[in-house]
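Submission sheet (multi-component)
Chains listed below:
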Amino acid sequence: MKHPIIISLLFILLFTAHAFALPINEYMLDNGLKVLIVEDHKAPTATFQVWYRIGSRDEKSGKTGLSHLLEHMMFKGTKKHGPKTFSQTVKRAGGTDNAFTSKDYTGYFELLASDRISLPIELEADRMQNLILTKESVLSERDVVMEERRMRYEDDPQNFVMEEVFAAAFKNHSYRWPVIGWMSDLKTLNPDDLINHYRTYYAPNNAVIIVVGDVNQKEILNRIKAAFGSIPAGPSLPPTAIEEDEQKGERRVYIKKEAELPYVLSVYKVPNITHEDGFGLDVLGSILSDGKSSRLYRSLVYEKQIAISAWAGYEGFSRDPFLFFSGATAGQGKKIEDVEKALLDEIEKIKNELPSAQELQKAKNQVEASFIMQQDSIYMQARTIGSFEMTVGWKFIDRYLEGIRKVTPEDVSRVAKKYLIDEKKTTGILIPLAGGATQ
Amino acid sequence: MKKTFSHFAIILLAVFLASQAAAGPLAEREILSNNMVLLHAERRVLPIVTIVMAVRAGSIAEPSDKAGLAYLTAALLNEGTKKRTSREISEAIEFVGGSLSASAGADYTTISLSLLKKDIDLGFDLLSDILMNPVFNENEITRKKKITKNWLIQQNEEPGAVASIAFSKAVFGEHPYARQVQGTIESLDRINRQDIVDFHNTFFAPNNAIMTVVGDISRDELKALLNRHLGTWNQKKIPSNPLPEIGASNSATVIRVNKDLTQANIVLGHLGISRDNPDYYAITVMNYILGGGGFSSRLMDNIRDNKGLAYDVHSYFSANRLSGSFQAGLQTKNESANIAIEEVLREMERIRTEPVSDKDLQDAKSYLTGSFPLRIDSNSKIAGFVLAVEFHSLGLDYVDKYPLLINAVTKEDILRVARKYLDTKNYVLVVVGNMDKIKLKY
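Outcome: structure written.
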């Protein structure tokens, strides 16, 4: 406790390869805590974020939803900062705070005037280790999460379908269960499992700090060292490898539920963005789905007028191979079989005919423009850096932009042919049950 | 060579001006010769430009039997002009990774353009084209109506939307604020092409519009673009149509919507205030303490943190130009609907009858004033903020005035506005959920 805090600077990387690349500075503290800082002086505000390498992917069958429930519990108080005070303290400083949990990570953030940045540094360092978790408080917050689950999934027909589709698409990989957890697991939750989850995964060597905003990096780094430097590293967590077994044919699920319009969602197993086919899949998603000039909107919504929305997209930023999505909501009186066929026709078309040079350039321009435009927001910059870092490493940002630029029309058709096939596909169909509202 | 030099000089000048103007107003305001209000904030850090326009052509301007007219007109602006088809418009803007959209609200229609600086000329060309030359082709109208009707049908899948639609209808009665901007399936059928053409001709004019431009663009560049692309946009006389009075109800109204859901979606509230009400700031502080302040609010503390009854519970005053509403909302499992409603009413009554503590008051003030920098820390936030400031005539010194207005609020003010603007007897209560399980006591 009384030792002076000695921190070594491992390395600093400053990217200037592209005019508007993010100038990310990386530091590593002795206890394994990585710190990424971007100075952005557009406005006198800053965001402070702590990301932990823990999500529903790392949970066990029968105990799903622990990472997300723990995210809720992180606002419950420590010895130093009593119950209910976390958000109130941030708000009193004119800040806002929140958190998010995904299948691969959990993140916490504060946004506030940059001259008040010391506050979240101190608060986050405190709750990394000193959270007070009682059985009663865990069970009470469990009830809140059950309400959240009812709102987001049980009473939302399309989200309900998505949950069923994930569960069918993955047989043995933990991506099969929802981040929020199954209702049955929440009901039988043992608070000790949650406490254990916190003790295991919340340690500096399993976390990354991201700061973006009107800060001086030397100064902020010193403050971070002072607050986090004395937190001991936890036992090293061996990387958990989970491999999904090969699928042998299409899987289909049907969901009958009170709803108004039929809906189809098809997912295809694909590699993540670090694979050589990742960039092609990303561009494929953009050509099919980005904007009103995209193929699916043009065909299903505008020309055939059988769907009110149609979309596709590649989710490549995940630790393990995940999914390429495509879906559509049928218009009233339209058959979901016809909608599904129209969706498939577009996928077959791009397998057999190369996309035009114009389409390809448009997709690339959209990626580049959105990369620059999101820098308008310090929050979005930090979110981008974090989601890269947690899945494929932040240095991949540059390779990503390069990779997108190099995609050819042949790449797009080739990856469509390789991955958008029955052997990788799971489809969910929502069959609306007439319940109707009565007043 | 000469051109490059002058460009360089302009940048230097801009940097100089920007540093000089650090403590000045957020944007420069000018009324153009065609009477359009122009608000410009030059911000050179990123090579992007954001434009947000408000045209006073919201649903309050449409006849009551043609609900959805303002919505359709806005939605059809970028579906074909004299120069371009619907597809050519979306191809052009999406090819450069930009976005151009239009949508109607109750008070005004918003048109938004955002793109890279290098494409700004194309952006202005498209913007002026959809503002001045939309053709409202019959096929596009049919298509848009069909999608809108389907969208209205799909809203029934969202319990929160069902509740809030029923709530507005009950609170605002005959006033246009009672309606959904998208209209109804029946009212959409009553709208023909001529209605849309007339609505556009009547209300889309520079003297009925505010334009906010934020980003990597100088005053001179902006003026040149406006001259080139909107120089022929002429002002016209805008008719004002009388609107029905909004009468406060003097009895409680309970609306039950039975659906097979696991949760009851609850909205409880009544008429509120218009944005120009001088009590707006006292109400802002009062509502922060009641249900606007997230985890600092009493509703959240009581209903979520202490009782575990809901994930989301909040209250807010939505203050529009002519009127507004107060509403508290939450979702809870069907079986706990009654207790949750009871707690909402209890907290409303408490703030009406007991003075708030010094700490509650101070906490609310320090958040509301201290968070102000976050409301204006990006181009897109500045554009939206400045637009609202202009639309509600708050003055460009609002950034400086706001903390004074908030800090002037006293405990007595809070008690007074809570008594005046919260009603625990004559409210509208909407409950959407499984009525057999809810067993509503109200």
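Remark: The first strand of chain A starts at residue 25 and ends at 28.
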